[in-house]
Design brief:
Blueprint: H1 5-25, H2 31-54, H3 63-83, H4 88-107, H5 112-139, H6 148-168, H7 176-199
Helix pairs in contact: 1-2, 1-7, 2-3, 3-4, 3-5, 3-6, 4-5, 5-6, 6-7
Length: about 200
Amino acid sequence: MKVSALDRWLFLATAVIASYQIAIGIEGLGEVPILAYTIGFGALLVAGLLILILGFEVLQSPIVVVVATIIPLSLACGMVWEYLAPWRVWYVSAATLGFIAVGVTRFARLSRRVAILILALVHGMAGLTIFLLPLSMVATQRAGLGFGLVSLGGALIGGMGLLLSFLRMGAPILNQEKLLKAFPLLFLVITVTYVLGFNWR
């Protein structure tokens, strides 16, 4: 499936918005959250530019699973470091091991079931963190209502990451054509909700 002119504009907008967040939107935080958010939004930026330049074919590359994992894991680690100090070391360690495990499944000859299980567990951990942590912060009035947009972005990117990963592993949940048609707009919406949520908290 070819990338249309509209799709290219959507991916370009995604890259520009992610660039803004990297350059301006994550100032005034600690070193670890800044690093984590920079990696997360940097992965969004790189993913948008790769698809813009190379087309949807790049989604068939094994690296897509790794990139789709970097984004939620990095953002989740940044938020845990900011808001859940007692869990910092445990969570970052678990996220690192999970990322390594996902990477191993890309190159080791493991069964598809094992690969899918590892992927689902890692994405589930990061996705639930991004979804539940902002909601709890808003509910306890430790953050503004706008931070709830991060939860929306977390739900969307968690679902998109799993859909892309299952597609890449030959076990698609949605028809490939339908997924690719929705992908550019969904990718932009995810980026916008993250940027607005982090800046309105």
